[in-house]
Please model this.
Amino acid sequence: MMARFGLAMIVLAYMLIGAAFALATPAWQAPDEPAHYNYVAQVATRGCCPLIAPGDWDADYLDALKSARFAPELLQNLAAIQYEDHQPPLYYLLAAPLYTLSGGSLLALRLFSVALGTVIVACTYATARLLLPEQVWLALGAAAFVAFLPQNVAILASVNNDALAWALIALTLYATLRFLRTPPGTARAEIGWPLLLGALVGLIFLTKTTGYFLAGLVPLALYLRHRAYLPPHPLAGIRGPDALVRDTVTQLPHTPPLVSLVNFFDGLRLSVPYWLRRQIRQPGKLLRAWALFLLPALLCAALWWGRNLSVYGTPDFLGLRAHDTVVVGQPRTDDYIARVGAAQYWRDLAQTTFVSFWGQFGWMGLPLAGWPLWYVSALSLAGVSGAALRLIMARERWNRAGVVLLLAGLLALAAYFYYNSEFLQFQGRYLYAGLMPAALALALGLEWWARLIARAAGQRAALYGGLVLLPLLALAPLCLYLLWRVIVPGLTPQ
Model:
């Protein structure tokens, strides 16, 4: 009961802070907000779905708007900013009725995004409780991190399809982990769950490409669960390739390299066929689960991808080629490296990504500085170092859920680097596709240090819980400080 009360208080505080951001942040002072708003307006007034076309991107006009802090006298052509028209339509379809009912209110659409953020907070808490049911403080801490991460609040309080994408990613990850723990043998487990997961991924296909990595991750989870509930195999005693690698590394200091290499490949030749037979058993059940997953996922995808192929041509099923043709003048990574060098590029990438992950407001014009930056840096150091020490020293065996969450975080990171390999976009918010795994890792890292300190202080439960939760709850007043002392004065037109 107390845990649910704590979650309710965190969600309520998030909604109040998010509403304050939505109300007080000057109009259009969030990344790409005019383009997302105009997409909603087009759907509400002309139907779905708009086409991206030359003229939707005007770099000079955007630069003038940002330089003047979106001064009212420059907004006469704001409706022409439509460079997000290639995006999948689900967020805009959901927001369009609200646009109509509110008379196009920017605040109403911002509050819609804030409401979607509650799904991310709740799913983070539920995932932590699912994995570590006894560690209530950790679950509340992870939820508080998501709820009060300043940059996350700023984006969720704007008109942006990221809100729906992150909510669906969090919901899909939570549902996947629930499915991993569902015993087999019922229609709900064997049919209902794969269909549900496929439907969630299908909705992601209709929302934003940042969540497309789940189309590969969920089938992997289906395989892991299938393998976990197989009956014991008569060849289970035969060691697999992973054991051979460990043995070879262990023997290297004591065995000539050539002998170790020959033994390794001989072992692989003998063990791999039996190992594969253990891994791939009862393939019919696995193929059925994959088919049930793919049915709703591909049905949703076909609606959007088929439409794109019909209007943009083959092979532009995502509309990205059309987008790249329109946004001429967007900063490119190759040009930046040629100008400043590779070393400076990587320094800028690391520094700006870190700062903007925590808070770089407006159109990346107001980065964290001073004591707020020192605080989040110390919090990051404690969380990351604690998570690393936990991983190294605890020697905990990775379970299926841990593998899925780790891969989700790594895939989000890989997508970020892939995007930056072409466009110069050092925006930490692009890592928020993996925000839920990051929140759990940070909370686990703080929990590692809290356990050590509490043990030294005599196992005081209140001290332990406070050390996990309070540093993350402190982000809530930090958000309000940044809103009133940094964002409002720094972004309001003069």
About this structure: The two ends are 49 Å apart (CA to CA). The longest strand covers residues 360-361. The beta strands are 360-361, 366-367. The longest helix spans residues 283-312.
